Amino acid sequence: MEVAVQIQRLFHVQIQRLLLTIATVVAVVVVFQFLVSPNKNYISNLWDASNGSVVTVGNVTSSSSSKLTGISVIHGMVNNSMASDSEGEGKDGDETQVEGMEKHSYFQVDGHEEMNNSFQIDEDGQLSQEITSESGFDHDKSLRYVKARNINTSFSMLGEVHSESSIESLGLVSPKISPNVIADLDAGLRTPPSSIAGNASLAHNNTELVEIQPGHTNKELLGNTSTSQSNHSSVSVDLIMKGRRRRKPTTISDMTLLLLQSLNSSSRPQRSSPRDRELQYARSQIQNAPVIRSSPELYASLFRNYSMFRRSYELMERMLKVYIYKEGEKPVFHQPRLTGIYASEGWFMQLIERNKQFVVRDPRKAHLFYLPFSSKNLRIALQQKQFTRREDLEEYLKNYTDIIARKYRFLNRVKGADHFLVACHDWAPWMTRKSMGNFIRVLCNANVARDFRIGKDVSLPVTYIRSAQDPGQDLGGKPPSQRTILAFFAGNMHGYLRPVLLQHWENKEPDMKISGPMPRDREGKTKYMESMKSSKYCVCARGYEVHTPRVVEAIYHECVPVIISDNYEPPFFEVLEWEAFSVFVLEKDIPNLRNILLSIPEDRYLAMQQRVKLVQQHFLWHRKPAKYDLFHMILHSVWYNRVLQVKL
Q1: Residue 421's beta-bridge partner residues?
Q2: Is 64 helix (H, G, I), strand (E, B) or coil?
Q3: Which of 16, 19, 60, 417 gives a 20 to 30 Å CA spacing to 357?
Q4: What CA dihedral angle connects 508, 509, 513 and 517, to 10 degrees?
Q5: What is the mean pLDDT of the chain?
Q6: Is 38 exposed, middle or buried (0-12, 13-18, 19+ CB in 10 A)?
C-alpha cells in the first residue's frame, strides 16, 4: 500500500516538473518573440492559424470567413536574375501597348543596396510586364501587384508589414500551386522561370493580383504557393494603404516650397568661364524680367511666372548652345526609339541631334552637354544577354562617363552640373544615380521621395507614341456640355494603388466609369478613346511607378487630369502652374474621390478644361519642332534649371 502511495506521489511530482518545463519553454519563446518583434500579436496569430486561413497586415487579422479581398503572401529566396522589359516587344522590335494598359517596371528597395529583379507576364499571350527593385527608396515602401488570372489561393501568414523599415520576411503555410496557375503565370515569358520575382498575391473574385516583392525566384514562387478551391485568406485592399500612411507624402504645395528653396542652393564655379558669365547674365535677366500680362501665342494662367518664362525662353532661343558627345556606339547611343511608352527619350534624341540652332561642334562654346543614350535600349541589351547582371548597366554608364572625363575637361569643371540626359525607362533613376547623379536628369520616373531633386532634375512627360509618322494623332474631345461621365479610368492592376481605386469605385456610381483593362481589339481601343473624350475628369493613377502616360493622354483628349500619385513631380513643374488645369488627389483620399470632384464648382471646372486645351501645345511632338512644343519645353526646362543653379 505504501509503495503504491509512493509511486503515486512520484508520478505527481514528475507531472508537475513536466508542466513547469513546458510553461518555462513557452514563456521563453513568447518573451524571445516579443523582444524580436514587440508589435506582433503572436498568441492571436497562432490561435487563429490553427482554426483557419489567416492574413495579418499591420496588426489587423482577417479570418478565412471574411468576404473582403484576399491577400496571399509567398516567401521566397533572393535571386539576382532578371527578365525582359516592361514593354512587350513585337517581331519587329517595336513596343506594343494598349490604351489604358501601360506597362511599368517597378523599383523597391528594402535597404541601401538592393538587387534588381524583374518579371514578365504575357497576359493572354500578348502583353508583357516587368517588376524590378531599386536602391535609394525609403519613402515609398509598398505592396506591388502584377495581374494574373484564375488563381484561387489560401494561405496563413504570421507577420506584419512596416512602411518605415524594410518589408519583413513573412512566414507562410501551404506551399504549392497548381499546374494551370504555373502555365498562366509563365505565359509568354522570354527568360527562364527563375527570373520571376514573386512574394505575394491578392485575390478578387475569379481574378487575382500577384503581389511582387524583389529578390525572390520564380521557383520559390511556384514552390511556396497552394491552391484552395474552397477557402480564401481575406483582407480588404484598404489595409495595403495603412502602412503607407505613416510617412507624409510630398504634396504639390510642398514641392513648390522645395522649388523655391532650390534657388538659394545655387553654386558658383571655381573658375568662371565666358559661358558661366553668360549664364549669370541670363539669370539676372530672368529674375528681373519685365512684367508681361499676356501674348497671342501663350496664356499667362498656365504658368507660375509668365514673365520669367517668356524672358527665359527668349534668352534660350538667343543664347543657348548644346554640345552632343559623339562617343558611344549604337544601339545604346545615338539610336532613338520613336514608338512605344518610352518614346519621349527617343524623340528628344532625334530632334536635338538634327538641330542646327542650338547644337555646336565646339564644346568650348557650349552651355550644356548632352549624353545621347537610350535607357530603353540599354535595358534591351541586358534582356538580350549582352550584359549578365543588373549592376552591369550602371557600370556601363560609369565607364562611359569615365571616358568622357578623360577625353574632355568639361565634365569635371563643375562636377557635371552642366551635363544632362533624357531617359524615360523606369530604371533610369537607378541606372544614373551614381555616375550621373550630379547631372540634370530629365526623367519620366520623377519620384521626389527618392533621389529626384526638385529644381535640378526635370520631369519628362510620358508620351505613348503609336505612329512615328504622326506622333500627335487623334487629338481633341467633346465640349464640356457633352461630357456626361464624371470620372474615367481603365487599366491593368499595376502597382498597389489601382486595386484600391477599383475596390472603392468600380460599378459603384453610374457617373464613375472606373474599371480594369478594356479589350485589346479595335473596338476596345475606340471605346477607351471615346471614354476619355466624353469624361470631365480622367483619373491618372500611378502604376508600378509614379508616372503614367494617362496624364498626357488626358491633355490630348481635353479631359482634366486627376493625378493620384503621391510624390510625383508633374512635367515642367518649374514653369507650369499645374493646379490651374488639373486636380491632385492624395492616395489616402481615394475613398472620397467622387465628393472631391463634385465639390469643384462648375465655373472652375470649365476654366480648368479650357486651360487643358491651351496647355496641349506644350505636350506635342512634331517631326519638325515648333515653338513652345514638347521638344522646346524639355530643352527650356534643362536650360532654366541650369541657369538658376548658377550663383550671381
Answers
A1: 441
A2: coil
A3: 417
A4: 10
A5: 74
A6: exposed
Q: Which residues contact 639 (CB under 8 A, 6 or more apart)?
A: 312, 316, 320, 367, 368
Out of 194-203, 322-331, 420-429, least confident range: 194-203
Q: How far apart are CA 389 and CA 627, in angstroms?
A: 42
Instruction: Tell me how far apart the alpha carbons of residues 607 and 587 are, in angstroms, rounded to a whole number.
Output: 25
Above pLDDT 90, what percent of the chain? 55
User: What is the SS3 assignment for 174-205?
Assistant: CCCCCHHHHHHHHCCCCCCHHHCCCCEEEEEC
Paired residues of 210 in beta bridges: 146, 201
45 CB-side CA count, 13 A:
22
Cis status, amide bond into 601, omega within 30 of 0 = no
Q: What is the pLDDT of residues 353-399, one digit of tens each?
A: 999 999 999 999 999 999 999 999 999 988 887 888 888 999 999 99
Give me the half-sphere count of Cα atoms (radius 13 Å) on the Cβ side of residue 425: 28
- What does the radius of gyration of the chain's CA atoms come to, in whole angstroms? 28
pLDDT in tens, 403-441: 999 999 999 889 999 999 999 999 999 999 989 999 999
Q: Are 532 and 538 in contact (CB under 8 A)?
A: yes
* DSSP sequence for 117-142: ------BTTTB-------TT--S---
Q: Give one DSSP letter per residue of 479-495, joined into a string.
A: -GGG--EEEEEE----T
User: Half-sphere exposure of residue 576, counting CA atoms within 13 Å on the CB side?
Assistant: 28
- CA separation for the pair 502, 533 (Å, rounded): 21
Positive or negative, the Cα torsion across 628, 631, 633, 637? negative
Express each pLDDT in 443-478 by its tens digit: 999 999 998 999 999 999 999 999 999 898 889 999
Whether the CA torsion 259, 264, 270, 274 is positive or negative: it is positive
Q: What is the 3-state secondary structure (H, E, C) of 555-577?
A: HHCCCEEEEECCCECCCCCCCEC
Helix residue ranges per DSSP H, 447-581: 497-505, 522-533, 550-556
Task: Give me the phi and psi of 307, to 5 degrees please.
Answer: -65, -45
Residues 549 and 552: their CA atoms lie apart, in Å, by 6
User: Which residues are bridge partners to 410 per DSSP?
Assistant: none
The one-letter code for the residue type at 241 is M
Taking the mean position of all CA atoms in its chain, how far away is CA 118?
14
Q: At 355, list the grid cell.
A: 538641330
Q: Which long-range contacts (CB under 8 A, 24 or more apart) does 382-389 make?
A: 382/82, 383/82, 383/83, 383/84, 383/85, 383/190, 383/191, 389/80
φ/ψ (deg, to 5) at 59: -120, 25
> At residue 333, what is the residue type?
F
